[in-house]
Amino acid sequence: MEEDQVLTAFSALSNRTRLQVLRHLVEAGPEGRMAGDVAAALGASPSRMSFHLSALQEAGIVTSERQSRQIVYRVNFDTIGGLMRFLLEDCCKGQASLRSCCP
Q1: pTM of the full predicted structure?
Q2: Which of 16, 38, 89, 95 has the highest Cβ tally under 10 A?
């Protein structure tokens, strides 16, 4: 990943609600969750959740797919993997002590 992409992604994740959304969608796996279900699970209004999901989508952290009248959101695991690789390889230069935490 390019540094600008990494900064955009980390900026999007530097919000408590968005981090909770990421955790929720990771747990959902490849099936993802409908926007309304994410909002209900996290106790947020649909409009507020839409704001957070849009920010995560713009950062490339989640993808969306319209299914009839609903929108299903999924984690973009390629982006999350890119962030992890950036931290471990690019930023931290593959330090063995850091790599040992993530077998």
Answers
A1: 0.86
A2: 38
